[in-house]
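1st attempt posting a full record on here, be nice pls
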Amino acid sequence: MAALGIGAFIVALILVIVIHEAAHFAVARAFGIKVTEFFVGFGPKPWSRMRGETEVGVKAIVACGYVKIAGMNPYETIAPEDYPRTFGAKPIWQRALVILAGPATHFVLAFVCFALWLGFVGEAVAKGTVIDEVAPRLEGVESPAAAAGLQPGDVVVAVDGIRDPSTDELVRYTTAHVGEPITFTILRDGSTLRLEPVPVISEGVDGEQIGRIGVLVRPERIVRDTEGVFGSVTGAADLVGDNLVGTVRGVGRIFGPEGIGRLATLVFTDAPRQDEDPASVVGVGRVAGSLASRDQFGDLLLLFGVVNVFVGLLNLLPLPPFDGGHLTLLAIEKIRGRPVDMRRVIPVSAAVAAFFIIFTVAVVYVDLVKPPV
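the predicted structure (as tokens):
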């Protein structure tokens, strides 16, 4: 099953690449811009064929993709009759839409993945509470649980009007009703009992004063809480927004001085890996395999959604050669009233690309020698 999960993840990544580049291609063609190449991968070219005026194919290393749009390379030779169909000949708003189309697909794909996950798989939710231990004494006197007759193994079916209370709900409710008898509906050996402990104020594990009755509990079962159509749509939108906020913070941390220093520490020392450390395709692929091996294949949709939000936001970084860098150049052109000389941008693009290649290789190395737990 692990291999199946990793395989599904790889296929999904290739599909994401194709969709991203297809969006650039489709919008460019819609505006009459000439596209000469559409490839998935880089390196040697084992297969390609002409589709109209566009060469379509697959290259040996299927790790990225690109479309070659006429006029975007400043050193490209353009036939005079093709000048009206080049990228630079079109209005800025059209060029911006061509660039934006690729990153936008990631957020659409993330939304679809989240909606399908919420509607058909659902979030894992702890339901019900089982009493593991009953303290005989609490705060120097007999505990409310012992006084009421609660026993280890009792299943808490309800507390007053709360059905299948979770641990957090139980703590909140007992804290809100200190000094008042509350009715526990208990399932014990096939029989239903109703017992009435009276919560008292006591110190919790984190030092906070909470209402307690003197029991240790655990969830009775884990269930999947699915949503209807409306809940799936609104929930998916919320998940996209939440992941966007989290990714913005994560990108700033990972690629900032602290993150670079942390990566160097992981590469050059025996420092153990932490949950917040970045993961490459290798690490995320292992997570996908782990989910599949635990029969949580449906949770791959959630993982794909999170990855798409990250990739979409990464593509929008305002640095060439990312799509966000091209959008930044268009904004500068709009403000200045004249195009940016792309020949001056190439060294910047090369430096940014070199940094991210080195960073990626380092993260892959860490994933191999210190796999995510």
